[in-house]
Amino acid sequence: MDNKRIATLTLDDGRSIELPILSGTLGPDVVDMRALSKLGVFTYDPAFFATASCTSAITFIDGDAGLLYYRGYPIEQLAEKSDFLEVCYLLLNGELPSAVQKEEFRSIITHHTMVHDQLARFFNGFRRDAHPMAVMVGVVGALSAFYHDSLDINNPQHREISAHRLLAKVPTLAAMAYKYNVGEPFIYPKNKFSYVENFMYMMFGTPAEDYVPNPILVRALERIFILHADHEQNASTSTVRLAGSSGANPFACVASGIAALWGPAHGGANEAALKMLEEIGDVSRVKEYVQGVKDKKYKLMGFGHRVYKNMDPRASVMRSTCYEVLKELKLENNKLFQLAMELEKTALSDPYFIERKLYPNVDFYSGIVLRAIGIPTNMFTVIFALARTIGWVSQWNEMIADADHKIGRPRQLYMGEVKRDFVALEKR
Ligand code: ACO
Hints:
This protein has 428 residues and is mainly alpha-helical. It has helices spanning 75-81, 84-93, 99-110, 117-120, 132-142, 156-182, 195-204, 215-228, 235-245, 250-261, 269-280, 286-294, 313-328, 335-348, 351-355, 363-373, 380-401; strands at 6-10, 16-22, 30-31, 59-62, 67-70, 73-74. Bound molecules: acetyl coenzyme *A.
């Protein structure tokens, strides 16, 4: 980093401080504010509009240009030419694997997919109609209780084993959450399948019949996993980092990420986008619905992004994947897809959306693809959590591996009562 440039901040009482300007390899410069507290003041940036919370070498986003790179590789190239496990290796280790490394990684992950049998009993504690995200927060957190042998976070080997376990076991738990919900028996992993095939087998297989994965649908889900694998310091990843900064174990940290992802402004958006399309119901109602958005009655789900002020590059890949899947399933005239395209067209030509730079994000089309694959709506955010697990654990690992990392501890602008004396109960 270039430390030679300086920003000078002067307070209204005349005191000033020189703050270094740092440059990354890509992206905007940042002003290093750490010395500011010497003046006895803090920065105030509640939703992190102008704050970089860490340095990272994992994912780069240029929101104005609509670019997304994992370890320098454009997302479009990875979605086209790579597979999910290879992307996981890349995110975790920094480089694409050689053929030998790739096979070794595949074998390790494949051989960690089973969960301790005792974990299966956790499911019985939940109501059958519990939201699968509620179940996931619980059972992924519960993994902490099973792996005391490798929870020394300062040991790189332990961190690696935990990362492998999370990557391997979260799909098994996700499929179990679904099976529990619909009242079907759990389907245990089968090592002959690829990572994505195996997940589909555990979701859709039954003990009664052989399961034959459809390669077009496998590829579509593989793309969804790749597109959701990481997205730098978003709300859930920042939650994982903050939880991890205290030294908490990675299973607990990932459970906190799942909780943060659940909200409709974040990972819950694909579920909300599909519900919205169903609510609109017909192409003839698009204009009326968009008017309601402009009147601020509700938001257009699957639109807008804190960082992208251009087309989300993941949305373009998702749109073409959507075409492929609907064609394969002979659903080209699918009503929701027609509706989504009309809604996108209407919004993109409307000044309200143009002025605010609101474009479709990845969730606008992913819901339609997931629905076509046969994944129920309440599992959409679980699929996102499954895919993002590698991003969370890679970011957590990067933070812990940095010897200078400290517990995350934001400050506040206190707006409460000034000091006052306690009032006895009879005098209140
Ligand atoms: N529909 C209608 N108007 C919107 C939308 C939307 N989806 N998103 C933003 N706006 C408007 C806001 O009302 C605001 O208008 P104003 O200037 O008149 O007040 C303006 O655009 C700026 O919006 P903010 O809310 O300040 O933008 P912010 O960066 O805080 O929010 C967010 C980003 C949360 C993603 C927002 O766009 C949103 O709620 N979108 C819908 C939910 C969604 O799709 N989330 C998925 C995010 S991607 C992901 O997690 C994978």
